[in-house]
Amino acid sequence: MFGDIARFLLNTVFTLFGAALLLRAWLQVVRLPPYNPVSNAVLHATNWIVLPLRRIVPSTRSIDWASILAALIAAVVYVVLMVAVTGVDPLALWPTLLIVALLTVVKWGLNLIIWLTILMALLSWLNPRSPAMPILFQLTAPFLNPLRRVVPNLGGIDLSPILLFVIVQVLLMIVTRAAVQLTYFVI
């Protein structure tokens, strides 16, 4: 029971933190202004790890490499702690754990896309004039706009979020299966 609780807490904390780090990198890619409440909260939550890494790894063009590296570091710590909770020595599995950590970062990114898409879809139905809508639209537009060109608009109903949700869910299944098979094979 203690192991289940520890795994749940580790998964929750690290998934939220990893998503915040990836969101920080994505905010820079879509050039979201730093003065809005979402950007401000993400920056404050992640500054403690990203700012020191920026001295080592600078940003290039619109890619925040320090945030991506911080997400990878968080994923490595997460995977090592998850393996340690099971009672296995993480150092014996080091190369495999690095691959699993990379897959974990991809999983966090895919989960972030799902969360943002669901939130945008819900707000578009419940409160389309919400102050969060422009932010969510800007964050999800790079994923939804190509799908909008393919999926027809059915009388004002946009089906592209549903298609994006399905695509990302399939990708999540593939990434999760790969990570689980790597860890089961080694453990």
From TrEMBL:
InterPro entries: CCB3/YggT. The chain crosses the membrane at residues 7-27, 65-85, 97-126, 162-186. GO terms for cellular component: membrane. Keywords: Membrane, Transmembrane, Transmembrane helix. Pfam families: CCB3_YggT. Belongs to the YggT family. This is YggT family protein. It comes from Paraburkholderia phenazinium.
